[in-house]
Write a structure and sequence with these properties.
heterodimer, A: alpha/beta, Rossmann fold, Nucleotidyltransferase, domain 5, six-stranded mixed β-sheet, 23 strands, about 30% helix, globular, B: alpha+beta, CV3147-like fold, CV3147-like, 2 domains, nine-stranded mixed β-sheet, seven-stranded antiparallel β-sheet, 11 helices
């Protein structure tokens, strides 16, 4: 059996799963220290399991590290080192960061020799003496964590690794993040993502150790995994080194959990809450990634993030008459006090749905003043807007199943434009924890290959092999690993001798390997 | 005369994206670079073409290479080195800089050498939009030689093209050098006089990009329709509104080629518009009839926010508006059409003016 946990801003939810069967679930308030809430969930579920059952693994999804960034709390004094000279100097590291975030981590930046061209040639060789001097300077300035970003390191990461060795030999205690392990082509965004990771490493190391210690003292020896932005797992030692990969695990786990509960792999998941409706697309069980730069705490990044389309419409959305105006204001969590159907005096989307007969909550008698044709007009508009969210997030005009979750899903009908089926799974209140519990192990490679030295097939095979070995290294059962996605992007404006390839692999967690 | 200040760059980036007609590369990094220099050295002066003096000596600059490489090995001061190389070769000091291409990332490239050399930029360019190759500039259509040209990398290498049979040869040689330089380089070429600029350049295009971008930003802040705001700035036509229902995008010989199909919404319901592209949008067909064709501008923007959408970012489900703007007159002559008309992109179709009513 295994336990899936979701630490949200308000609640910590946990589920006990036997394979793919939900055995138990629990909700408790998130504690300020995060750890004690997690441990109390684990203890409760551990006590409720059958006596002969073992807990094999604990999977954790958390927004703790993104909160640390937003609150500028516990961030390490960090430096960004770019290997690029004499190229790529005009826009130095951290150039587009919010000033207060930059100063809260010390804002130390360095540029040194190194880096590669798109075809793998060196821009310049690594200068060991130069890097030793920089390392000493970092130490003098109190830097405890450093991100190293070489130009075209997704093509060749050797310079980043050499630089890391030199810095470690000079300052053994330095935490090091390599950009090639974090992001994809696009130096500013990849360097930013690596730097976010660098400044979170200390808080991540402390948090992971605290949870492990607490689990051990509770007598639980099962390994701990963290769920990542793309819906795959990482080992806790890895999570302590790469906290940035957990930042968007919340929406990912919610979508994957919802789809799992409804038994579909390819679906649009619509989460209608109190104030907003979020739509995401699952392709073969994983969220489709955003293709544009993703903003994290005001910083542009380009690492793996789910594509989510949101509008301001939820159960608490305020409705106005003559003419009909829907939102964007919402009474949010105060719906059960302020909504008319609950005895309040604010006309909300929920009141409209009850008046129209679409939903059945509260006391419908309180809505006798609402004109039936107005309610119909409003409910039609609400339905249309939610259908548009589903349509915007789809990948083709082909009808797909739509999974509806969230308290606000009572606003919409089951006859859904563009949907092959509308599913409303039970236990959706713990979808996030279930999403964490069902996570698999993945590997991803994104590289630019020069096709003057190899054929396209050879390039694709190299990328596939590397993606598979990355998944196995991350703890996947080698026999279960398959290729999930291949994307080829020949480089525009050049004769086609360069090809960018992105390959994703995924497999089942090899539990036996963990013990 | 006016000055480019930091805030203008945000507007220019949007406007240049619209004039990029799907190609030209993303102006975001160019905008950041120009911002750095304007912060350090102050605003850059912009001269209207009619403010130029007969003694002026104006050099054209631009970036060349793969945009997908340019987001990794970001351009630095190469266009400034290229400017210096041209000055050294000709023995004459430049007095102003002109952009090669107002569409996309090249719109802000002249601001870099201008800021570093303390020179003004001219409110004009060689395309009035975006095109993929060096020779596709109005200057060269109307008799200005496309050389001398200096191509520079960031390491201190300079290649000088001192003579060529025609612009197409300049393109071939410069492209080969650029690949060796790591697929990102900058160039300076074709020093011109005031009269040559006034007669062979597309005029007032930096102002146009800024005004288009400003209109979009103002409309967004005021919750007004950005499309209507755009139409108030430049005479053009809403060709179509709808959502993307099909996308076929392949990359062959270094170009993103393909087409996007848009299903009509609102007054365009039950119609389909197909836009064919080769990096830039080239042909718009309403059902099967051509309603706008290169060199006229076909711009795809996000209907709600007025944000230009480049070819590589097109995706199913996007709500888009397709705008048509008439090409600059210089492109509509037989010489102009021979260089950048339908036949230059492999279409066996006669060019017909965009009908504005």
């Amino acid at each position: 059996m295994h336990i899936g946990i979701d630490v949200g801003g308000t609640n910590t939810d946990a589920v006990l799963m036997d394979g793919e069967v939900l055995v138990g679930k629990i909700k408790s308030p998130t504690t300020p220290d995060v750890t004690s809430g997690i441990i109390s969930c684990i203890n409760t579920l551990n006590a409720s399991k059958p006596n002969d059952a073992e807990i094999d693994a604990v999977m954790l999804g958390t927004t703790h590290f993104v909160n640390a960034l937003l609150q500028r709390a516990g961030l390490a004094h960090s430096a960004a080192l770019r290997l690029c000279l004499p190229a790529t100097t005009m826009l130095p590291p951290l150039v587009d960061w919010p000033d207060d975030l930059r100063s809260s981590i010390g804002g130390h930046t360095y540029m040194a020799n190194g880096g590669h061209e798109y075809d793998g040639r060196e821009i310049s060789p690594i200068d060991e003496i130069q890097l030793r001097t920089i390392a000493k300077k970092m130490n003098d300035e109190g830097v405890r964590s450093v991100s190293i970003s070489g130009v075209f390191s997704p093509v060749d990461d050797s310079h980043e690794k050499i630089a890391a060795d030199i810095i470690t030999s000079e300052i053994p205690s330095m935490n090091i993040t390599l950009s090639s392990e974090i992001g994809r082509v696009g130096i500013l965004e990849r360097e930013n993502a690596a730097m976010l990771n660098a400044c979170l490493v200390e808080v991540a190391t402390t948090t992971v150790a605290a949870i492990q210690t607490a689990m051990a003292s509770a007598g639980l020896e099962a390994p701990l995994f963290f769920s990542q932005n793309d819906g795959t797992l990482m080992q806790s030692e890895f999570a302590a080194q790469y906290p940035v990969f957990t930042i968007a695990s919340g929406p990912t786990n919610s979508m994957r959990g919802a789809a799992f509960l409804s038994g579909v792999l390819d679906a649009v998941v619509i989460d209608i809450g109190g104030t907003s409706t979020d739509g995401g697309m699952l392709v073969r069980g994983f969220p489709r990634e955003a293709i544009v730069a993703v903003d994290v705490a005001g910083v542009r990044t380009n690492f793996r993030m789910p594509d989510v389309f949101s509008i301001a419409l939820g159960g608490g959305t305020v409705i106005k008459q003559n003419p009909l105006v829907i939102g964007p204001e919402s009474v949010g969590f105060r719906l059960t006090q302020e909504g008319m159907v609950f005895g309040g005096d604010q006309l909300t989307a929920t009141d409209i749905a009850v008046a129209n007969g679409t939903a059945g909550v509260g006391d419908p008698k309180l809505l006798s003043d609402i004109n039936a044709s107005f309610a119909q007009e409003a409910i039609n508009e609400i339905q249309k807007r939610v259908e548009e969210v589903a349509d915007q997030i789809k990948v083709s005009s082909h009808p797909v199943p739509v999974v509806l979750v969230g308290g606000g899903s009572i606003l919409v009908k089951n006859s859904f434009e563009g949907a092959s089926d509308v599913l409303r799974p039970s236990n959706a209140d713990v979808a996030n924890a279930i999403g964490a519990a069902i996570s698999q192990v993945g590997g991803q490679v994104e590289k630019v290959y020069s096709l003057t030295e190899m054929t396209r097939e050879e390039a694709l095979n190299l990328a596939k092999e590397e993606a598979i070995s990355k998944a196995v290294d991350a703890g996947a059962d080698p026999d279960s690993v398959g290729i999930m996605d291949i994307e080829e992007i020949p480089l525009a404006y050049l004769p086609s001798n360069a090809l960018r390839v992105k390959v994703k692999s995924v497999g089942n967690l090899d539990i036996s390997k963990q013990n | 005369m006016w000055n480019v200040v930091e805030d203008d760059l945000e507007s220019i980036a949007i406007g240049a994206g619209i004039l990029g007609t799907g190609g030209g590369g993303n102006p975001y990094i160019g905008m950041l670079r120009a911002k750095q220099l304007i912060r350090e050295n102050g605003p850059v002066k912009v001269l209207s073409p009619d403010e130029l003096d007969e003694s002026d000596y104006i050099v054209c600059v631009g970036g060349i290479g793969a945009p997908t490489v340019g987001i990794e090995k970001v351009r630095d001061n190469q266009s400034y080195y290229a400017l210096k190389a041209i000055e050294d070769f000709t023995g004459k000091k430049a007095s102003a800089i002109i952009s090669n291409e107002i569409g996309g990332s090249n719109s802000v490239e002249p601001l870099i050498p201008a800021s570093l050399a303390g020179l003004p930029v001219v409110d004009a360019d060689g395309m009035g939009r975006a095109f993929p190759e060096v020779q596709m500039k109005t200057f060269f259509v109307y008799g200005i030689p496309a050389y001398p040209m200096a191509v520079c990398d960031e390491k201190g290498n300079t290649a000088l093209i001192t003579e060529a049979l025609d612009g197409k040869w300049v393109e071939r040689m410069a492209r080969a050098v650029t690949i060796q330089m790591g697929a990102v380089a900058c160039y300076a070429l074709a020093p011109m006089t005031a009269h040559q600029i006034q007669t062979t350049a597309v005029l007032n295009t930096l102002s146009l990009a800024k005004e288009l971008g400003e209109a979009v930003r103002v409309a967004r802040t005021a919750n007004e329709d950005p499309i209507e705001a755009l139409m108030n700035v430049q005479s053009g036509k809403v060709l179509f509104q709808g959502k993307i229902i099909d996308l076929d995008r392949q990359t062959t010989a270094g170009f993103a080629k393909g087409q996007v199909v848009i299903e009509g919404m609102g007054e365009y319901e039950s119609n389909k518009l197909t836009v064919e592209f080769q990096n830039e949008n080239l042909v718009a067909r309403l059902n099967s009839e051509i309603i706008c064709i290169v060199p006229d501008l076909i711009c795809i923007v996000d209907t709600e926010r007025g944000e230009p959408i480049t070819t590589e970012l097109l995706r199913y489900g996007f709500r888009v508006t397709v705008l048509g703007f008439p090409a600059p007159e210089l492109w509509k002559t037989p010489e102009g059409l021979a260089t950048a008309g339908p036949s230059a992109f492999g279409y066996d179709v006669e060019y017909a003016d965009l009908e504005l009513t």
